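Q: Please design a sequence for this.
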C-alpha cells in the first residue's frame, strides 16, 4: 500500500511525461485567443480575467489536455456557459434552485394521481407504505442524483465520464425526459384549453344543448325517492316519464336511460361530453385516429411558445419564473381548500380519503404503487435532477436540499388530497351518491369530476379560472424542468464536440427554439381523436418500468463501479461531512434490493394497458413494451458499442474507470479533488490507479 505522497507523485510524473511528449507535437490550438490574453491560475501575477484557461487540443487527436501539469481540463460545458464559454452558469441564488426543484417534483400527479391512489389503496393506511417508500427508495435516489450532478457540474449525458461504458444510461434517462416532454405538454395544453373555455359567463360543461352533446347527455338534479327520470319513448321521438324510485344512486354511476327495448344505456354528464367529445374529440380506440383537433392544437402551440420563451436563456430565466410556478399553486390549493371545507358533504369526502383500511396493506400491489408513485412524484432517474443540480455552487449543501424538497413534495400530495376530496364530498352530497361513485383518478379527475363539482358552486367561472390557472402552473413548473433537461443534455454534448460555439448566444437561442419546435411537431400526433389513447400508451411505457431500471443501474454504477467510498469522499468535499449510516445502508443494500424486487414484480405480473374501460389490442400492448425496451436498450447497446470499438475483454476493467475529464468543473475545486484523490488508499483505486490509462 502506497502513501498519499507517492500516489500524488505518480500523478504528477504522469502529467510531466505527457507534457514532455507534447514537445514533439505540432503547436497546440488553444482556440484562437489573442497572444496577450492571460488567465487566473496561469502562474502569472498579472492575469486579469476570471476565465478558465482554454482547452489545448492536439491537431492529430481528439484528446483534450491542459497545458499545466497536474490538471486535466475539458471544454467548458453546460447549457448555460458564460458569455465567453469559460464558466458554467449558476443559479442566481439557492432559493431559485429549491423553487425550481419543488416545481419540477410537484406536478399534476400530486393533484390527480396521489389522492386517487390513497382512497383506492386503503385511505389513510396507504400513507404508511407511501412514507416508508419515500424513506427507503425516494429520498436516497433523490439525494444521490442531486449530489452527483452538483459534483460534476455537467448534464445527464456528459456526466457519465464517471464510467464511460455506461453512458448509455444517460441516453436512457434523457430519452425518458424527451418522450415525457412531448406528451406532458399535451396535458398542459388541455389545461390551457379549459382555462380559455372558463372565460365566459357560463362554463360550457355546465349543461347540455351544445353542438357536441349527444342524446345521452343529462344534467343531474338530485332526485327524491318518488321523483321521475326521463327516458326515450318506444313509440315516438319524444320523451315520457317513468317513476324513479330506488334508481337515484345509479343515475350516472351505471344506467340511467332505456332504449325502445328497455335496454339500459349509460348516461353521460355535460362535463364528460365536453372533455371527451369537444376537447379531445375522442374516438373508440387507438386504431381509429378520428379528426384532427385544430382548437387543441392552438392550445398546444401556445404551451410550447411559453416553454420556449421561458427557457430561451436557460436557468437565468427559469430561476426567475420558478418564483411564480412553485408558489402560486400553494396559494390556489389553500384557497380551494378553505372554500371546499365550508361546503356541505366535505367532511364525508375527507373521511373517505383518510379512513384507513389496514387489510389492504396485505396486497403487494399497494406497496408497488406506493414505490412507483414516489419515483414518479420526485421525478427521479430521468436526468432532470442531475441537470438542475449541475448549476449549483460546488459547496452547496445538497443533502439539506434533498430532504427539504422530498418532504415538501410528499406533504403537497397529502395536502392536495384534502382539497380534492372536500370538493368530491360536496359533489357526492349534491348528487346523493356515495363518494366512491364520483371519485376518479388521472385526467378524469382533473378534467371531468372536479370541473363538474365547480358547477355546483356560485360564481363557477371564477373558480374554474382559478383552478385551471393552478393546474396549468403545476404543469408548466414540471414541463420547464423536463425540457431544460433535454436541452442542456444535448447542448453540453454538442459544446464538448465543438458543434455549438459556447461563445455564441445566437446559436444557443436557435438551438433551443428549434428543439421546442420539433417537439411541438411530434406532439401533433396526439391531436387526433385517438391521440389520448396514444398518450396513455406512451405514458404507461415510459413512466414506470424504465425509470426503475434506470434507478437501479444508476445506483449500481455509482455505488459499485465508481465505488461508494469515492462517492462518499466526493460528497464530503462538497458538504463538509461524510454520508451517515442511513445513506450507506440504503444506497448499498436497501434501495437496490427494493428496486430489483419491483422490477421483477412488474415483469412477472404484467397487467394489460387500459384507458378507462378500454383495453388495448395485443399489437398495441406489444408496442407499449417495445417502447419501454427501446429506452432501456440504450444501456447495454452503448456498453457493447464502446466495448467493441475501444478494446475488448482485457481492457474492460480499465474502461469502467472514470475518464480523465471526470471531476469538479471549477479549477480550484478540481485541484482540491486531485489532491484529495492522491490521499485515498489503493483499496479505493486512489491516486494513479483512479483514471483510465491513456
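A: Design:
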Amino acid at each position: 500500500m502506497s502513501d498519499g505522497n507517492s500516489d500524488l507523485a505518480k500523478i504528477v510524473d504522469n502529467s510531466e511525461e505527457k507534457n514532455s511528449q507534447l514537445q514533439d507535437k505540432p503547436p497546440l490550438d488553444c482556440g484562437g485567443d489573442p497572444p496577450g490574453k492571460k488567465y487566473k491560475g496561469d502562474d502569472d501575477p498579472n492575469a486579469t480575467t476570471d476565465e478558465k484557461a482554454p482547452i489545448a487540443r492536439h491537431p492529430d487527436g481528439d484528446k483534450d489536455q491542459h497545458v499545466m501539469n497536474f490538471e486535466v481540463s475539458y471544454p467548458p460545458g453546460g447549457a448555460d456557459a458564460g458569455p465567453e464559454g469559460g464558466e458554467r452558469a449558476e443559479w442566481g441564488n439557492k432559493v431559485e434552485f429549491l423553487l425550481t426543484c419543488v416545481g419540477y417534483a410537484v406536478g399534476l400527479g400530486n393533484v390527480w394521481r396521489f389522492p386517487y391512489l390513497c382512497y383506492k389503496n386503503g385511505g389513510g393506511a396507504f400513507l404508511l407504505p407511501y412514507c416508508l417508500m419515500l424513506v427507503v427508495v425516494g429520498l436516497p435516489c433523490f439525494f444521490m442524483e442531486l449530489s452527483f450532478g452538483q459534483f460534476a457540474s455537467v448534464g445527464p449525458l456528459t456526466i457519465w465520464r464517471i464510467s464511460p461504458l455506461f453512458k448509455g444510461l444517460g441516453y436512457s434517462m434523457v430519452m425518458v425526459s424527451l418522450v415525457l416532454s412531448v406528451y406532458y405538454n399535451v396535458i398542459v395544453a388541455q389545461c390551457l384549453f379549459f382555462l380559455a373555455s372558463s372565460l365566459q359567463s357560463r362554463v360550457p360543461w355546465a349543461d347540455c344543448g351544445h353542438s357536441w352533446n349527444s342524446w345521452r347527455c343529462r344534467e343531474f338534479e338530485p332526485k327524491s325517492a318518488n321523483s321521475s327520470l326521463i327516458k326515450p319513448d318506444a313509440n315516438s321521438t319524444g320523451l315520457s316519464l317513468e317513476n324513479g324510485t330506488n334508481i337515484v344512486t345509479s343515475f350516472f354511476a351505471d344506467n340511467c336511460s332505456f332504449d325502445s327495448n328497455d335496454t339500459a344505456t349509460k348516461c353521460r354528464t355535460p362535463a364528460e361530453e365536453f372533455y371527451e367529445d369537444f376537447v379531445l374529440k375522442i374516438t373508440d380506440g387507438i386504431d381509429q385516429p378520428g379528426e384532427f383537433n385544430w382548437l387543441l392544437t392552438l392550445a398546444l402551440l401556445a404551451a410550447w411558445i411559453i416553454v420556449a420563451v421561458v427557457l430561451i436563456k436557460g436557468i437565468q430565466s427559469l430561476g426567475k419564473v420558478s418564483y411564480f410556478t412553485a408558489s402560486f399553486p400553494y396559494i390556489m390549493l389553500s384557497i380551494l381548500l378553505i372554500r371546499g371545507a365550508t361546503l356541505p358533504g366535505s367532511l364525508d369526502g375527507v373521511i373517505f380519503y383518510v379512513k384507513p383500511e389496514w387489510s389492504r396493506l396485505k396486497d403487494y400491489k399497494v406497496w408497488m404503487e406506493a414505490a412507483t408513485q414516489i419515483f414518479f412524484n420526485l421525478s427521479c432517474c430521468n436526468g432532470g435532477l442531475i441537470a438542475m443540480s449541475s448549476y449549483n455552487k460546488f459547496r452547496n449543501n445538497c443533502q439539506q436540499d434533498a430532504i427539504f424538497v422530498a418532504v415538501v413534495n410528499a406533504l403537497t400530495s397529502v395536502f392536495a388530497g384534502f382539497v380534492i376530496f372536500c370538493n368530491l364530498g360536496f359533489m357526492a352530497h349534491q348528487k346523493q351518491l356515495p363518494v366512491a361513485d364520483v371519485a376518479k383518478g388521472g385526467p378524469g379527475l382533473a378534467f371531468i369530476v372536479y370541473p363538474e363539482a365547480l358547477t355546483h358552486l356560485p360564481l363557477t367561472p371564477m373558480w374554474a379560472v382559478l383552478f385551471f390557472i393552478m393546474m396549468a402552473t403545476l404543469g408548466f413548473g414540471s414541463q420547464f424542468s423536463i425540457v431544460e433537461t433535454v436541452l442542456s443534455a444535448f447542448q453540453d454534448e454538442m459544446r464538448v464536440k465543438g458543434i455549438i460555439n459556447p461563445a455564441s448566444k445566437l446559436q444557443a437561442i436557435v438551438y433551443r427554439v428549434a428543439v421546442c419546435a420539433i417537439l411541438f411537431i411530434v406532439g401533433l400526433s396526439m391531436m387526433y381523436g385517438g391521440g389520448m389513447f396514444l398518450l396513455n400508451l406512451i405514458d404507461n411505457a415510459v413512466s414506470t418500468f424504465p425509470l426503475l431500471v434506470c434507478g437501479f443501474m444508476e445506483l449500481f454504477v455509482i455505488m459499485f463501479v465508481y465505488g461508494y467510498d469515492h462517492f462518499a469522499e466526493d460528497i464530503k468535499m462538497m458538504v463538509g461531512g461524510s454520508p451517515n449510516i442511513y445513506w450507506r445502508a440504503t444506497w448499498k443494500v436497501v434501495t437496490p434490493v427494493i428496486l430489483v424486487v419491483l422490477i421483477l414484480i412488474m415483469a412477472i405480473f404484467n397487467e394489460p394497458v387500459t384507458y378507462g374501460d378500454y383495453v388495448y389490442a395485443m399489437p398495441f400492448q406489444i408496442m407499449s413494451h417495445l417502447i419501454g425496451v427501446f429506452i432501456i436498450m440504450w444501456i447495454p447497446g452503448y456498453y457493447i458499442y464502446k466495448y467493441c470499438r475501444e478494446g475488448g475483454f482485457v481492457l474492460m476493467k480499465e474502461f469502467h474507470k472514470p475518464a480523465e475529464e471526470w471531476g469538479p468543473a471549477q479549477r480550484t475545486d478540481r485541484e482540491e479533488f486531485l489532491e484529495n484523490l492522491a490521499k485515498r488508499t489503493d483499496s479505493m483505486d486512489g491516486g494513479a490507479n483512479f483514471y483510465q490509462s491513456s
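Q: Thanks. Anything notable?
A: Residues 460-496 form the longest helix (37 residues). The chain has two domains: 94-203+280-640, 228-267.
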